């Protein structure tokens, strides 16, 4: 169980892993969505612009043939007529083609959002490995692609069969109809068939996108070890963090011990607790705690105080209250003002008499 949860990829991908996969071009995308929407867009474009395009192309052909009979008799004239006709045809078809291209772009953006990366273009030499290539062809993905291809062929064939069978009674009488009627009926039949095929492909695209999404989620899953390693990279190695915290505490203690030299008095208990106080009349509203500690730290504070001739006074109840209620580099609580004032008055009196610590 431990090996399964720690070594195998059984955990959902983290946001960082998802972002990394996206930056590498690994996204959930179905090409069938673009194909289905392109077919539907083409059919919609033909339904809206088809009659106009057919009319303009017919008029263009009629005018070119009527006015260019002399020109087409020579190679240069034929080339000029062909070039002119091609430009007109491109101008007529440009909106239709641009609309289809726009639908293709929108279908991709809707699936993956705006993404630009060149990493998928980097050469991958492992694709040349025949063993891996064999695995890709006959693996799960290969079978899925084969099934999709067969399913698309079946959908198109079945849709065409059903449509032709349903409209066969209307198509047979067209054999003797005039050219305009025949073109109109064939165009309507083609649009009907195209819309049905597009809708069927859209259903297949929805199923394929769901599968591609599921397969993408499976491909980016992570093992517990990968998650732990990512957590370490994000937050830092616990041992390094512990070392940093230790150094920070040591620096803080060193700064606190150095501040004892500027203290006015150290209140002790007399062995276990030591609190160093500082008060500057006129610039401070209340005395502040510049150092505090217990046991070994209390001894260091007292040693530093003796080193710099800072008075050390024993007052066990006050020392315990100061250590419990006062915060480092903060003014003492209001309820301790009177007791501390007595201590400071005693210190100033001793200093006035010239007495040492």
3D structure, described in words:
- This protein has helices spanning 2-7, 15-23, 31-67, 75-112, 130-138, 140-171, 179-219, 224-235, 238-259, 296-307, 316-325, 337-352, and strands at 265-268, 273-278, 288-294, 312-314.
- With 357 residues, it is mainly alpha-helical.
- It has 2 domains: 27-219, no CATH class; 241-352, 3-Layer(aba) Sandwich (name from scop).
- Helix 3 packs antiparallel against helix 7 (179-219), helix 5 (130-138) crosses helix 6 (140-171) and helix 6 runs antiparallel to helix 7 (179-219).
Summarize the structure.
This protein is mainly alpha-helical.
| Strand residue content | 5-15%
Number of spatially distinct domains: 2
N-to-C SSE series? Answer: HHHHHHHHHEEEHEHH
How many helix segments? Answer: 12
Structural class of the helices, strands and pairings? Answer: mainly alpha
Contiguous runs where pLDDT drops below 50 for at least 5 residues: 1-6, 353-357
| Distance between the ends | 67 Å
DSSP strand tally: 4
Q: Provide mean pLDDT, rounded.
A: 78
* Helix proportion range: 55-70%
Rg over CA atoms: 43 Å
Strand order of the largest sheet: 3-2-1-4
Shape estimate: rod-shaped
Main pleated sheet: 4 strands, mixed
Summary keywords:
357 residues, mainly alpha, 2 domains, 12 helices, disordered N terminus, disordered C terminus
Sequence-ordered SSE layout with sheet pairings:
Elements: H1 2-7, H2 15-23, H3 31-67, H4 75-112, H5 130-138, H6 140-171, H7 179-219, H8 224-235, H9 238-259, E1 265-268, E2 273-278, E3 288-294, H10 296-307, E4 312-314, H11 316-325, H12 337-352
């Amino acid at each position: 169980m431990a090996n399964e949860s720690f070594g195998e990829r059984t955990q959902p991908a983290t946001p960082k892993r998802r972002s990394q996969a996206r930056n590498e071009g690994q996204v959930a995308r179905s090409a069938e969505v673009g194909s289905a929407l392109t077919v539907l867009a083409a059919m919609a474009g033909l339904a809206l612009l088809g009659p106009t395009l057919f009319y303009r192309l017919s008029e263009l052909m009629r005018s070119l043939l009527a006015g260019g009979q002399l020109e087409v008799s020579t190679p240069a004239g034929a080339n000029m007529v062909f070039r002119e006709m091609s430009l007109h045809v491109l101008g007529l078809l440009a909106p239709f083609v641009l609309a289809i291209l726009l639908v293709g772009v929108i279908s991709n953006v809707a699936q993956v959002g705006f993404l630009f990366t060149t990493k998928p273009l980097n050469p991958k030499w492992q694709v040349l490995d025949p063993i891996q290539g064999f695995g890709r062809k006959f693996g799960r993905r290969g079978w899925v692609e084969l099934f999709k291809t067969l399913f698309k062929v079946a959908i198109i064939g079945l849709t065409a069969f059903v449509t032709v069978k349903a409209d066969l009674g209307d198509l047979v009488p067209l054999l003797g109809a005039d050219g305009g009627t025949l073109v109109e009926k064939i165009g309507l039949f083609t649009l009907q068939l195209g819309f049905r095929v597009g809708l069927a492909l859209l259903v297949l695209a929805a199923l394929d996108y769901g599968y591609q999404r599921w397969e993408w989620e499976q491909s980016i899953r992570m093992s517990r070890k990968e998650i732990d390693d990512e957590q370490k990279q994000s937050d830092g190695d616990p041992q390094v963090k512990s070392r940093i915290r230790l150094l920070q505490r040591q620096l803080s203690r060193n700064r606190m011990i150095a501040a004892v030299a500027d203290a006015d008095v150290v209140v002790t208990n007399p062995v276990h607790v030591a609190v160093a106080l500082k008060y500057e009349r006129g610039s401070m509203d209340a005395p502040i705690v510049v150092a505090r500690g217990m046991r070994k730290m209390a001894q260091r504070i007292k040693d530093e105080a003796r080193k710099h001739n800072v008075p050390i006074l024993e007052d066990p109840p006050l020392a315990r209250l100061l250590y419990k209620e006062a915060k480092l580099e903060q003014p003492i609580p209001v309820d301790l003002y009177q007791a501390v004032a007595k201590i400071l008055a005693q210190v100033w009196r001793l200093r006035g008499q010239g007495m040492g610590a």
